[in-house]
Design a protein that fits this description.
Elements (H helix, E strand, L loop, with lengths): L2 E6 L9 H17 L4 E4 L13 H10 L5 E8 L5 H14 L4 E6 L6 H8 L2 H6 L1 H11 L21 E5 L2 H10 L3 E3 L8 H11 L11 E9 L3 H19 L19 H10 L4 E3 L1 H15 L3 E5 L5 H21 L1
Parallel strand pairs: 1-2, 1-9, 2-3, 3-4, 4-5, 5-6, 6-7, 7-8, 7-9
Helix pairs in contact: 1-2, 1-12, 3-6, 7-8
Length: about 325
C-alpha cells in the first residue's frame, strides 16, 4: 500500500508572522502524525519572505519535538550550500535527540536566488560539481568510524541517518540509482521528466547497504476540502504564488481569491496549469480518483503531499482528509 507523507514549506502568509508560521508547522506535524502519515519533511529555502524554514535543522527539531512517532526530516537540505561535516553534525544531533525518527533528504539546487546562494557557499560551480562526492563523504561521516579515519563527526559518527536523493531531472535519477538510495522526485513543481526519471532510476538501481531495491517517493501539490469549489478556492493561493514567482516578485503566501481572472495572463495560466498537472485538488471523490490515477501511473512507494494554502485551518483539514483518503484506498485495495 502506498504511503502518504507531508512536505511542509513553513509558509509565512499574508497577514502572518514567522512565529505564527513556525507554530503552524508544529500543528501540521501533529496532524500528520495523528492521520497516520509516514514522514513529515521540511525544505531548505533562503532569502524568501514567504518561507520560514531557512534554518532547516532547527525547524525539523521543533517538528520532531511536537510529535512522538512520525519520521521527521529534510526534503531537502541543499548539500552544496554546506560542508558535509556540518550536516553530519546537525543530523547526528537530531538523531541523538529523536532516535530512529530522522531522515536526510538531499538536493543540489541552491534553494534561493543567486546572490543569496553566493553568500551561502561562495563557489556555485564547485558546489554542484562535487555533489556526488559530498554525499559519499557525508555517508562516511555518519557511519561507524574506520580505523585510521582522521575526520570524525561528533555527533554524527555512527548515526546512520537514512539518506534520500531529491531531484527534478534525470541527473538525480542516475545518481540515486548508482548510490542505491531512495529517490524523491519533485513532480509537484517539475512534472515533465517524472516518468523518464523513474524509469532510469528503477532500471539502473544498484543495491546498497541502505537499500536492497528501488524506493520511489513522488511529490504532489494538493488542497482537499468538503467540495470541489472550496478546494479550488483555497488552491488559488498556490496559483498566485507561482504567478509571482514567474514575475520574480516573491512574497508571502497570498490570501485565496474567488477567481484568477485578471490576475494572470493566458500564457501564465497555461504554464502554471501545466506545472500543476498532477495536483490533487478537489472534494473527496474528485481528489480520490485523481490520487488513484497518479499512484497507478507512477507505481510510487510513497506520495509526499504539499498543501500550499493560506489558512492554517484549511491546511490541517486537508491533511486530516488525506489521512481518511488513504484509509479508503487501503480498504479498497
Amino acid at each position: 500500500m502506498t504511503a502518504f507523507s507531508i512536505l511542509d514549506l513553513c509558509p509565512v502568509v499574508e497577514g502572518g508572522t514567522v512565529p505564527e508560521a513556525l507554530d503552524a508547522t508544529r500543528q501540521m506535524a501533529r496532524q500528520a502524525e495523528a492521520s497516520g502519515f509516514t514522514r513529515f519533511w521540511l525544505a531548505e529555502h533562503h532569502g524568501m519572505t514567504g518561507i520560514a524554514s531557512a534554518a532547516t535543522s532547527l525547524v525539523i527539531s521543533e517538528a520532531a519535538r511536537a510529535t512522538k512517532t512520525i519520521r521527521v526530516g529534510s526534503g531537502g537540505i541543499m548539500l552544496p550550500n554546506h560542508s558535509p561535516l556540518v550536516i553530519a553534525e546537525q543530523f547526528g544531533t537530531l538523531e541523538a535527540l529523536y532516535p530512529g525518527r530522522i531522515d536526510l533528504g538531499l538536493g543540489r539546487a541552491p534553494g534561493t536566488d543567486m546572490n543569496t546562494a553566493r553568500a551561502l557557499r561562495r563557489n556555485l560551480e564547485a558546489g554542484a560539481e562535487t555533489f556526488p562526492n559530498d554525499i559519499v563523504e557525508l555517508q562516511t561521516l555518519m557511519s561507524e568510524p574506520q580505523e585510521g579515519q582522521r575526520l570524525i563527526a561528533n555527533p554524527g559518527a555512527g548515526a546512520n541517518v537514512p539518506i534520500y536523493i531529491l531531484g527534478s531531472s534525470t541527473y538525480s535519477a542516475h545518481l540515486a540509482a548508482m548510490l542505491g538510495l531512495p529517490y524523491a522526485f519533485a513532480s509537484h513543481f517539475a512534472p515533465d521528466m517524472l516518468f523518464e526519471a523513474l524509469h532510469i532510476y528503477r532500471s539502473n538501481f544498484r543495491p546498497s547497504n541502505q537499500l536492497d531495491k528501488p524506493y520511489v517517493i513522488v511529490g504532489v501539490m494538493a488542497a482537499l476540502a468538503d467540495t470541489d469549489e472550496e478546494a479550488d478556492y483555497h488552491f488559488t493561493s498556490a496559483l498566485q504564488s507561482f504567478v509571482a514567482l514567474r514575475r520574480n516578485a516573491r512574497g508571502k503566501t497570498p490570501r485565496p481569491v474567488e477567481s484568477m481572472d485578471g490576475l494572470w495572463t493566458e500564457m501564465e495560466k497555461m504554464s502554471i496549469e501545466h506545472t500543476f498537472q498532477f495536483a490533487i485538488v478537489g472534494g473527496p471523490e474528485k481528489a480520490k480518483a485523481k490520487m488513484e490515477r497518479f499512484v497507478a501511473d507512477t507505481k510510487a512507494d510513497e506520495v509526499i503531499i504539499s498543501v500550499p494554502v493560506h489558512s492554517v485551518e484549511a491546511r490541517l483539514k486537508s491533511v486530516a482528509m488525506f489521512g481518511e483518503m488513504r484509509g479508503a484506498l487501503k480498504q479498497a485495495a
